[in-house]
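Please, structure for the following, as tokens.
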Amino acid sequence: MLLHVLIISTCSRLLCIFFYIFAQTLIKTDSGLVTMIHIGKCIRKKIEEQGKTTVWFAQELGCHRTNIYKIYDKVTIDTGILLHISKILNYDFFSLYSEDLSKDS
């Protein structure tokens, strides 16, 4: 019985993790599907547009460059970190979400 409960519990957790990951990776489309901004890709693009390097960005953020590559892979990010990144790159990344909200209205 205990083994049965553990198996069900583990399956439930795996299912929750699957749906969380699936929800985080939905791509924005014009067809009205549920959308998600991939903020890491947006940050990387802005750094490249400004002619900056990942090493420069890591120094400005005060972390190792391997952590920057982790940021690039993130679909979502903590708002405090995003604010700090916005200040470093002199770009309002929050506006991406505001634009997305106004399109839905």
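The CA atoms of residues 82 and 102 lie 20 Å apart. Helices lie at 2-24, 39-49, 54-61, 65-73, 79-89, 94-104.
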